[in-house]
């Protein structure tokens, strides 16, 4: 039976299911049972019990990922449940841990680690209300600020000020929560709860605000930095960032679209690019790099050759790579270590088929995720593709939306994909024969939905049947027309929508005023 519960876990569920009784009895509970009771409460969404467990936490650390992960008592991993009730109870419980005067236990808690929480598309919690990374950032910042105000205004037990807890979190900052996060980070020294930023994602921020807040986060601790969408960072700003700030532990870097554009390069820009490469070479932990939608033609070697640590993840989708770039990648020491590779938006069969397959063969023993969207892969290329993918026995994810493949070719490919033992997720294109005759690729957004939906459903059923017949119902196959699910974008789409409308309005106003001047 799946996810078997131990007798201990069943007893824990029974104990926490009566919230009133459980809360009264916590004082008599052995310390080593707190983690067990926490996971049981989380599963049953017993917010009040969760709050009281955290408020009276008797151990040195509180690690969300470990507490909710697979345990001997209950194998199911609950760390992808971002249940609003549970998470809010956790964080307010943490605030009240600091304020709790009557706690019978000595306050031992030193580290709270919230980084193990995973944001996923489908939620299983009963309340159906999630608290994503942005909202967690917002709530923790607010609690830290409120806590300080309260401590300054109230006659507190002197012991309260001796409490010092490092709270490890992945921060997500946009213009809408910027002020609140800045206030919390500025007062970090005097607050008992100390925000320690392990990963930082920024979207919809002016460069001035971005540069200010990134310094406050203590970059020496930062493992992951994502600068995305509406942060207008260009190459000279990136050079400035790397010159001013050191990121000794940085493992993962994501840059916004159009950071680089070699089409309008001057000699000075070439020097800037060289400097950026050198600075990245000093980041000895860097193993993940994403720089999609930049124009990097012929410059991949300049940027990546200074790196001393092999990359495990590389996203150079829509970067206008040429043959020299692909040859560098195929022959570089990175090739044997790449676990995730995204080359979307390049006409692979036309530009560099043999070099691409050389790269694929080099990373085949470790490759887990491959994305080849809009790569002009046609029916005539499928046999070659199968040959290239055959050694990739660790492949878990293959995404190839937007390629002009027929239903017949997809069936042929799916029959092969069944043989990849680790495969879990496939994103396949709408078959070419479902679109009107004469459609051109890459398909623009306006035409992407103009296919025969009934025919597509029939083909999708046949493809799923191929998986079923091969006993591969563990593989999820889908066609997300507008890209894969992104929890961060999903959570902030109201703000991003408002930003787009605002910039559209500003553009219109500029156009109107210049038009009026002309007339």
TrEMBL record:
The keyword Kinase does not apply. Signal peptide: none annotated. Gene3D superfamilies: Ribonuclease Inhibitor. Keywords: Leucine-rich repeat, Repeat. The keyword Repeat applies. InterPro entries: LRR_dom_sf, LRRC14/PRAME. GO terms for cellular component: cytoplasm. Belongs to the PRAME family. LRRC14 subfamily. This is Leucine-rich repeat-containing protein 14B. It comes from Molothrus ater.
């Amino acid at each position: 039976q799946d996810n078997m519960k131990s007798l201990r876990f069943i007893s824990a569920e029974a104990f926490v299911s009566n919230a009133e009784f459980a809360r009264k009895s916590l004082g008599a509970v052995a310390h080593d049972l707190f983690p067990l009771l926490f996971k049981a409460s989380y599963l049953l969404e017993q917010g009040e019990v969760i709050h009281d467990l955290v408020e009276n936490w008797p151990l040195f650390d509180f690690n969300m990922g470990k507490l909710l992960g697979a345990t001997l008592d209950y194998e199911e991993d609950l760390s992808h449940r971002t249940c609003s009730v549970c998470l809010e109870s956790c964080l307010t419980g943490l605030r009240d841990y600091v304020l709790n005067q009557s706690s019978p236990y000595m306050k031992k808690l030193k580290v709270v680690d919230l980084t193990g929480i995973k944001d996923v598309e489908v939620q299983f919690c009963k309340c159906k209300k999630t608290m994503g990374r942005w909202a967690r950032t917002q709530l923790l910042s607010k609690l830290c600020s409120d806590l300080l105000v309260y401590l300054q205004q109230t006659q507190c037990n002197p012991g309260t000020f001796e409490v010092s807890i490092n709270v490890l979190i992945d921060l997500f900052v946009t213009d809408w929560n910027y002020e609140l996060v800045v206030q919390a980070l500025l007062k970090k020294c005097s607050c008992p709860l100390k925000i320690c930023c392990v990963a930082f994602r920024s979207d919809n921020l002016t460069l001035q605000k971005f540069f200010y807040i990134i310094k406050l986060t203590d970059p020496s601790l930062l493992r992951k930095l994502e600068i995305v969408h509406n942060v207008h960072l260009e190459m000279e700003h990136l050079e400035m960032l790397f010159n001013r700030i050191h990121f000794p532990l940085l493992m993962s870097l994501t840059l916004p679209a159009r950071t680089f554009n070699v089409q309008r390069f001057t000699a000075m820009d070439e020097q800037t690019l060289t400097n950026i490469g050198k600075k990245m070479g000093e980041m000895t932990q860097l193993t993940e790099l994403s720089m999609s939608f930049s124009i990097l033609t012929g410059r991949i070697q300049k940027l990546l050759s200074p790196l001393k640590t092999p990359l495990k993840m590389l996203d150079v989708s829509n970067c206008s790579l040429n043959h020299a770039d692909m040859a560098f990648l195929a022959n570089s020491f990175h090739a044997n270590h790449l676990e995730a590779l995204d080359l979307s938006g390049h006409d692979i069969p036309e530009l560099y088929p043999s070099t691409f397959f050389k790269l694929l063969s080099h990373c085949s023993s470790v490759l887990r995720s491959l994305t080849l969207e809009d790569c002009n892969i046609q029916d005539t290329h499928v046999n070659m593709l199968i040959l290239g993918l055959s050694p990739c026995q660790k492949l878990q994810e293959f995404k190839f939306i937007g390629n002009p493949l027929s239903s017949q070719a997809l069936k042929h490919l799916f029959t092969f994909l069944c043989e990849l033992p680790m495969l879990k997720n496939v994103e396949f294109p709408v078959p070419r024969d479902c679109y009107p005759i004469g459609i051109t690729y890459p398909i623009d957004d306006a035409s992407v939905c103009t296919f025969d939906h009934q025919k597509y459903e029939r083909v999708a059923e046949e493809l799923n049947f191929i998986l079923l017949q091969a006993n591969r119902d563990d593989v999820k196959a889908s066609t997300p027309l507008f890209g894969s699910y992104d929890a961060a974008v999903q959570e902030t789409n109201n703000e991003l929508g408002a930003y787009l409308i605002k910039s559209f309005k500003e553009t219109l106003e500029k156009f109107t005023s210049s038009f009026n001047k002309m007339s």
